[in-house]
TatD DNase family Scn1
Amino acid sequence: MESELKEMQARLETVPRSVLEHVIDVHCHPTDSDMAMTLRVAEQMPIRICAMATRRSDQRLVADLARAHPDKVTPCFGYHPWFAHWIALSPVVSKEEHYRALFLPPSPPPKPDLVAAFERLLPYLPDPTPIADILPELRESLETFPNAMLGEVGIDRACRVPYRRPADPPYSEYAPTHGDEDADGPRSLSPFTIPLEHQLGVLEAQLGLAVELGRNVSLHSVKCQAATGEVLDRMYRKHGERWLRISVDLHSCGLSAQTFRDIAKRHPNVFLSLSTVINARSPAHKDLIAACAPDRILVESDFHDVRCSAPYTWHMLQTIAEVKDWRVEDAWDADAPEDRWGAVRRLEENWRAFERGGHRPYVKRRQRRDRAIEEWEAENSESD
Ligand SMILES: [Zn+2]
């Protein structure tokens, strides 16, 4: 890891700052690391970043970082699926009852080893927070920053609840960065995953707020290909054109190329971003890049340390450029015509389209023909 980072850092140093300032890391977790260091390093950071929140204790840190560096940091507020069990969708009678309903449903009667695992886990779990308390705070955070996004939110079927008390920030000192392996070894993971239905309840409440406030979304999806498509379809049906006002980024997208293509076909507001840390573990990420329309792809680091955002984002940008056969700029030419755009300019324009939102619904071929005829008639009647 160390030498990999050094190599990336060395490559980054050959790129002029006038190019790097057009690069956007659309998904990272800088507030997972020590805040004094993060605030200091962000000052010198050559690129722009979208800083994610994940749970109640880091929403404020993201706000602090965005306030300190408004030109470089887009704040993202929201609740990550790994912590969805800490949120109660209905009024809480008792902590035990809340978690029992999630992890030990009464039928079929749970096996004794599962009951024992639950007894072991319960003391580590925090008192649940009702969603009715979470949503007004989230609304306030989003309204405080007109450019803020909703993130990181999503669904995850791989994540198991650890036998560990919730960490206080900076989390990076305790927690595994990402993925299903736990830093302390598999024995520190309980057998429990968070029921998908509960995760969907937490996610859809947050998405409703994003639609209402017209905010873009950074969406996590792990081992939930079908469910992810279904959530997006449900949102489109429920909110109609208002759904298309916002953009959704499938971050460190783990979907197959085919699933992404199908989703993109139904949802003109869905983008995809890739990271070296998560996606480059699988060679399939190059197929995904190839399958993604050139104007829907974004780049990210997903890193928990702000010092790694630029080198890792640049690394993925080079991978995308290679697969898409785009040149990478070595100098910045703001007036370059579109057919001369390099990877940095293309990805920056994609980010702008993402930020802007207001996507147009796809028009069915027949409607398109009818519309062309109408336009032709309108033009002709004007010239009469
Ligand atoms: Zn993330």
